[in-house]
Amino acid sequence: MKGAKKRIGGIIKILRKNYSHSRTALQFETPLQILVSTILSAQCTDEKVNEIIPSLFRKYRNAKDFASADKEKLEEEIRSTGFFRNKARSIINASKKIVDDFEGVVPEKMEDLLKLPGVARKTANIVLSSAFRKAEGIAVDTHVRRLAQRLGLSKEKDPDKVERDLMSFVPKKEWLDFNYMLVNHGRKVCQARKPNCPSCVISHLCPSAEDFYPDIKLNP
DNA sequence: CTCCCGATAT
DNA sequence: ATATCAGGAG
Question: In the prediction, which pLDDT does A220 show?
Answer without folding.
Answer: 60
